């Protein structure tokens, strides 16, 4: 029984790595970004967000319309600690009871103005270089009430706050409790504070020095990518890098355009050009790791995510997962377990249950059946209806029996 279960879990662990890479071949066609066909990468029952992106709860969708008499508008500014606006577009996120819901993006001067509760459809990610597709969500009736100012106990937006999101930065929060449709929409300034332990940046100084014509070409390409117009975006971004070859954001956008069309080798080269210009530019590392996983190049995936995590150990929990999968397939169980555990620590919202799945596989291979069962049980706690939930329940029952047998055999006199 032990050998059979361990083999099954090992196979499932290998399948995990396959799920990371096979998702790239699935056509989504809804926006630019990660994988050979765009969109986010599916790993097991979870969704791995594109670089620098905010995680979303894709099981829900935003309402299609709101009563205009009860609509709540919100406006304000995002600033860095030194009083200057961020040099890139920043995501504005509504966080309700710990659940982040992307709402809007700032303009080039850090200003934002949006209708609370509508959320985002196909939009660029917070770092203004990767092109994320954020799935719209429909709130529960209680969340809808809060968004419309009709929360129970006359307490609209109870448990909700507004934050800015930019990798490498910590945001102040604006409490939304009690906000109603007739209130002054201005919520003031949200400050972003640089994290001391993040060496890399989604803001490349080289991009800020792009000449006017190159910047215009980049902006046209960026706008095309957000509409899913890959060919048009590719053309404009090629113009941008021709005018200014040391343009990390434009090279990254070009890589995203290639990757969204399945041109993985061209994408890899474009991401490489971005890093050649600025090796502390974070966004290309994740995409290059994803392409390496697609190609089952475990060594390259491990090394690329190692570099990314050295530069930013807090904003990319999926990089820990990618690293753990790569190390697992390289046979380095200690490194795989370490990366997966670090990923769990960083993944505060449990968006990547595959981390627990992989840890369960590793612990079962080490005949720590009780430990393996604990991780699989945690997986089910967060993904009770996940794609692999039924299989994991069966494996969990076997693990519990094996753990009980091991405990019985360890008792004196047994």
Describe the structure.
With 414 residues, the chain is of the alpha+beta class. It folds into two domains: 2-49 and 204-406, Serine Threonine Protein Phosphatase 5, Tetratricopeptide repeat (Alpha Horseshoe), CATH 1.25.40.10; 68-194, Sandwich (Immunoglobulin-like). Helices cover 46% and strands 13% of the residues. It has helices spanning 2-22, 141-148, 205-208, 212-226, 230-243, 248-260, 264-277, 283-294, 298-311, 317-329, 333-346, 354-365, 369-382, 389-410, and strands at 41-43, 46-48, 73-80, 91-96, 99-105, 111-115, 160-165, 169-171, 173-175, 186-194. The strands form three sheets. Strands 6-3-10-8 form a four-stranded mixed β-sheet, with no helix packed on it. α1 (2-22) packs across α8, α1 runs antiparallel to α14 and α11 (333-346) packs antiparallel against α12. It starts with a helix and ends with a helix.
